Description:
By secondary structure, this protein is mostly helical. It has helices at 2-10, 12-27, 29-64, 67-75, 79-91, 97-108, 113-125, 131-138, 140-185. The longest helix has 46 residues, at 140-185.
Amino acid sequence: MNKFIKTIKNNLLLTAAVIATLVIWIFDHNKGMDILINFLNTCESTIPILILMFALLAFIKVGMNSDAVQKGVQKNTGIKSIMFGYIFGLLVSGPIYPGFSLSKILMEHGIKIRVVIIMLSTWATLKVALLPFEIKILGLHVTIVRWIVTGIVIFLIAILCEAVIKYFENKKNKFMEKERIEEIDI
């Protein structure tokens, strides 16, 4: 029983959604069935993408453990790593949420936060797969301007985010060192 309650607490949003769906289904059977059908359609379209993305993550995690790849990743902190972030983000198609797990793996292996932010931002906003559709709807000129401005802004945001994160990490480290020194004095 304790394990069941813990599972419900850990999945509070899912539990609330299931309860809300059941309540809707009780009061209006058709709307409840519509919700269920929409949920199943979403699962049907999302699960294959998730499987492929997690396979990619597993491949990258195994590949990142090789010494040659790790040395190359840690050495390439300049333009090559920034270009990696842009190119990877441009070429990956699908939802962004597997990108967060990938980002964690990349940061654990020495990729700078700016490259991760570039990759995630590009992944979310600039997709080569959608380019023909965007040109058809918005026109070539608007698409070109949007891509250039978005690419530049992504780079600026990445630099700003990295600076802010470093600032707060330095503050935290100074605070932790001060705490450690005070503990030694006591």
